[in-house]
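Need residues for this backbone.
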């Protein structure tokens, strides 16, 4: 599934999803278009009705244009369009993503792909989010993959969701970050992930990095760059803070700054 909004950035997402579909031999691509309706005014009446009706008509034209663009891709395609209020965008996107294998969007920088949307799908869909940098033609490949591993449930979910991609890889690295005084558990962490992948016919090597918790994000990106990786796989971690964004520090860092595509699951 790919997020579409009718803007110029659709071409970046569609270029990425076309490459993903070709390499994974995907049977179908679903475009999700959420037509945001204006909030009703304080006084209901003909004026408000006319504004909403105009928004729906604009959505009809956009849906037709997006369906035409989707049909330019190879294979079966489908457009899903919903008229929604802005507060419902994340919820509807998460609901629709549950019936897909992967949700493709841009990194949530600026106004292209709202942070609320990406967080909603990541934490609410149960499926993986594939985030693409905002480059004109992103390089989509799966031959060199870095997996961030800390033994958590989120890391296990990401590893499971990434299996179709990992089976295409020529090189896979399990990266474990520890502080300067690792515990006994830290000393063996990652061996289980390597063995798990081996059971699936995927050869992976284990590498440890030593850094402070605040440096994990930048260090992971540096490791990916050093190894010329073209995909980072990691769990999406949340900090449950009342009325605040449910996003952990490492998740936030990579989601906004990763120079290569990022596959995340929660």
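Answer:
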């Amino acid at each position: 599934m790919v997020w579409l909004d009718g803007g110029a950035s659709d071409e970046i997402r569609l270029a990425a999803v076309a490459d993903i579909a070709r390499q994974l031999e995907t049977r179908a691509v679903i475009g999700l278009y959420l037509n945001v309706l204006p909030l009703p005014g304080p006084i209901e009446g003909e004026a408000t009705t006319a504004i909403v009706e105009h928004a729906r008509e604009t959505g009809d034209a956009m849906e037709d244009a997006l369906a035409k663009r989707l049909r330019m891709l190879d294979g079966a395609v489908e457009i899903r369009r919903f008229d929604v209020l802005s507060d419902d965008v994340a919820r509807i996107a998460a609901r629709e993503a549950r019936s897909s294998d992967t949700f493709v969007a841009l990194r949530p920088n600026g106004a292209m792909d709202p942070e609320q949307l990406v967080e909603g799908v990541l934490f609410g869909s149960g499926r993986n989010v594939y985030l693409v940098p905002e480059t004109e033609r992103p390089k989509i490949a799966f031959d060199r993959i870095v997996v961030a591993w800390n033994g958590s449930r989120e890391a296990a979910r990401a590893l499971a969701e990434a299996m179709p991609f990992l089976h295409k890889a020529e090189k896979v690295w399990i990266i474990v970050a520890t502080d300067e005084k690792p515990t006994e558990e830290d000393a063996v962490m990652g061996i289980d992930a390597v063995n798990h992948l081996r059971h699936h016919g995927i050869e992976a090597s284990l590498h440890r990095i030593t850094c402070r918790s605040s440096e994990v994000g930048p260090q992971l990106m540096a490791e990916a760059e050093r190894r010329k990786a073209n995909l980072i796989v990691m769990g999406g971690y949340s900090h449950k803070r009342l009325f605040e964004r449910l996003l952990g520090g490492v998740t936030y860092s990579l989601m906004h700054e990763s120079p290569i595509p990022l596959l995340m699951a929660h």
